[in-house]
Amino acid sequence: MWPTTFFAVDVIEGFQRMEALVSQHRPCIFVETAFEMVYGLPFKKATYTYHHGLYVKNPVLVKKYKPMGCTEDSSWKNFITKVETVIEIQDSPKIGAPPVVDAMEMCPYCDEPWPSNPSQQLIEV
Length: 125
Hints:
Distance between the termini: 65 Å
Order of helices and strands: HHHHHH
Radius of gyration: 25 Å
Shape: elongated
Strand content: under 5%
């Protein structure tokens, strides 16, 4: 099943060959046709779009995985796992970063957290 059973180098080089085919002017070759020419498989737009997006948005990993060749560690599935790990790390809060606080929980005068049991005077201010 393309591309999860492929090595990363095969997927990467396939995308690069497709780009060369699509960029030529005569004859005009569309992505669907280029995919079928390169991979010899039927074109599935959603699958292609997702995996091509991973390829385009992760040039550092592409440079790392392409020279790895065909090893157990260099599968496209491992490439995807690495991308998802990087995304997860980037989306996690930074160490030492201040916690995110809702503005409704802050005192409008001093920008300190609103007390859990504010006095009546503070409530009326």
